[in-house]
Structure formats: structure tokens, C-alpha cells
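Dear colleagues,

As part of the handover before I leave the project, I'm documenting each prediction I ran so the next person doesn't have to rerun anything. This entry is a single chain, and its sequence is reproduced below.
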Amino acid sequence: MNFEFQHINYSLWGILGLVFWIISYMYWFRKPQLFIPPKYKKKELPIFRSIFFVLGVVSWLYISFALAGPRRPMGMDKNTIDVNDIYIVLDLSRSMLAEDLKPNRVEAAKQKIKDFVALFPKDRIGIVIFAEKVFTLLPLSTDLELIKKMVDQIKLGPLGDGTNIGDALALGVGRLLQSQAKSKIILLLTDGVSNVGTLTPMQAAEMAASNNIKIYTIGIGGDKDAKIPVGTDMFGAQRYQIIPGGSVDVKGLREIAEMTKGKAYMANNNKALQNVLDEINRMERTQIEHSGRIIYQELYFKYLLIGILLLIATELSRRIFLREGV
């Protein structure tokens, strides 16, 4: 039989009970009240006493087995949940260090993502990050704590200095192709103009549109005079420079959103993201099958009852047939 045990260590208590029972049954360590010469002692146990000994051992083994918490897995408890499948595509180019949003653009974007996750606890959310290179930080997940921890670990640097919007969007599209949800969404947060990559943003948008994936674009910042830190001078003061390559490609982000029937927003204030969240919240969600906890058949009570009844029968039989303990 396919058993699992919840408390395997607890079976040691049953084994300990068996040891003490055998000591008591065999009268070990007990001083005789009447001395009988060895030649008058019986060298073999009566047949009944041997049978009762075996039954006692078996009863304690049943009890020990029951204490280990035996159970048999019966399958998964499946239910359905209503979801959107959403990939957040986050720009990590160097311009995201600009401090027109406090403390800077990337930290403000990270906080917005965590707020987003908290508002949609039933949706499946994945994260793609990009600069010159693109990377899937997290596949679709409903684990809110895991998503927040992964967002907290996001840092600039490892993916280069460019802005590869096209390939990042294409990666998000590819990840969503296997989704069964009716509402498949990409939320793009960027502050720059695409300047590297194999695909252009519009080519990636065409891929999304042909697969019924909506892209919502959020331009981070937008201040043409925004500056990024570039180290310190000889006196230790922070130095800044104007963002190379210009500010948000507002026109390009709008075209991407329009092609995929999404919407474009500017996040130069705290209300911008709330607008897109409200829009996504009104979308039709899709029921998907969700595997929950494993269902078990608990078996400990059956074995415990057998062991106790057998032990009681053994002890009563000793007193009736062998006149022991009377």
C-alpha cells in the first residue's frame, strides 16, 4: 500500500511501550518471592503463553504504526479561479536612475509594481526586465510574497545600458502564447526610446495584436530636463548629467498601445498607474483549473483501534487462561 507518514518519530513511543511490555511479560528484573530449584522449573513456555506473547507484540506494533500517522494520498483537491494573465515588462536602462520621481524612477516603478500585485491577488503575474538584454525574472505566478521578493531584488546594471523595448515585448508575448486566459496583458513601464534589439517595438506589437494580447504602456518620468547621477566630484559632491538619448517616446508608446487595443499612460504623477489598474480590473477574467492541497485518507485511527483492542484481549486472556496478574 502507498503510505505516507505525518509523524514518523512518534512511532518510537510505541516501540518503547513494546520494550517495557516485554520486560513485564517475561518478568525480567523482577525478584521471585518463592525460590524454586532449577530442576523443577519448566524449560519451555506453555503454548498459550507463547501465543499471547506474539499477540502482545503484534498489538504494540499496530499502536506504533498508528502513532506514526499513516495516510494514503487520494489525489489533488482541484478548484477553479478567475484570472488575468499579466506580464510586467520593466525598463532597467541607466536613465531609470533619474530622480524626477522619488527616490528615482526605478524605485518608484518597483513600488508601483508591488502596489499593482497587492490590488490583483488572484491574477497570475510574471515579470520581464530589460535594458540592452532581456530576461524573464519570474514566470506567471499567483504567489504574492514571491513576486514582491523578486521585485525587491531588481537592480540596474547586469542587463547593459541600452533600451531594448522590442525584444522585451516579444519575450512577454512568447510567454503568454501558452496562456488559456481570455485576458492576456502586457504592462510596459519604460522611460526611454528603443535603441537596440533584434525586433522593433512595432514588430513586437504586431505579434501581440495577432495573438489577442493587449499592451498597456506607461511612460515613466517625462521631464526633458531630468538628470541621472554619474558619480562624485573631487569634493565628494554628487554629479549629474542630462539623460542621454532624450526622454520618453510618447508617440511610440501610444502607437504600441493602439495597435494592441491597449492604452498609453504617462506616470509623471501618482495617479497614472491607478488609471491602468482600474482599466485592467474591469476586464473579463477566465476560469482556470487550479490544483490545491493533496487529499489524504487518514488511517491512523484504524490501526490504533486494532492495536488497543488486541492488547486488551491479550491482557484479559493472560489473566483468564494463565492466571497471571491475579
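The chain has nine helices and eleven strands. The CA atoms of residues 59 and 310 lie 5 Å apart.

All the best with the project,
I.
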